[in-house]
Amino acid sequence: MLLDQFLVCGLGGLGQHCVAALKEFEISVIAIDKKLPGDWEIPHLQDFLDNLLIGDCRQIDVLQQAKIQQCRAAIIVTSSEQVNAETALAVRKLNPKTRLVVRSSKKNLNELLSEHLGNFIAFEPTQLPASAFVLAALGTETLGLFNLEGQWLQVVKRTLSPTDSWCNNRLLYELNTHKRRLLYHTSGTASSSKVFNEWEPNAPFLPGDTIVYLEVIKPTSTDSKKLVKKTWYNPWHLLTRLKHLNWLTVKQQVAKFLRKPNEHRFKQIGIVCGVIVGFLLLLGTVLYRLTYPQISLVDAFLTSTMLLLGGFGDLFGGFNFKLPVPFWLRLISLGMTITGTILVGVFYSFLTERLLAARFQLNKRRPPIPQKDHVVVVGLGRMGQGIAEILQEFNQSLVGITLNTDFDMTVLPKMPLITGSLKGSLSKANLQTAKSVVVVTDDEMLNLEVSLMAYDVNPKSNLVIRTTGLGLSDNLAELLPNAQVLCVYAVVAEAFAGAAFGENIINLFRVYHKTILVTEYQIEAGDTLNGLLLSEVAYGYGVVPILYQKGTEMAKLMPSEDISLAVSDRMVVLATSDGLQRIEQGASRTASKNWQVHIAKALTEEAQFEGANVIVRISGCNLNTARNLMRNLPKTLHFPLYKHQAQRLVIELSKAQVIASLLPTNSL
Question: What's the half-sphere exposure (Cβ side, CA atoms, 13 Å) at 45?
Answer without folding.
Answer: 25
